[in-house]
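look at this record:
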Amino acid sequence: MLTGKQKRFLRSMAHSLNPIFQVGKGGVNDNMIKQISEALEARELMKISILQNCDEDKHTVAEQLAKGTRAELVQIIGNIIVLYKQSRENKQIVLPKS
């Protein structure tokens, strides 16, 4: 689990990122989860946007993505989800100590 301080740190880092994935009408599926997992391994921190035609609630989508990718949900702001997962081989982000 991330502490409040770590989440603030990650939110400030995510501010300049652009969303890489979009969740649309189809919602969340296994293929999307697999692709997002691979992208998280490479990047650790990423934004995902939820399109207006998505049938599911953004909180449900965020929960499904976080659980499916085993990532931490950093924040939901508007229709953007920010996820963080520490990379096994490509560690770049050093979190502040709690």
Notes: The mean pLDDT is 94. DSSP finds three helices and four strands in the chain. The CA atoms of residues 25 and 54 lie 4 Å apart.
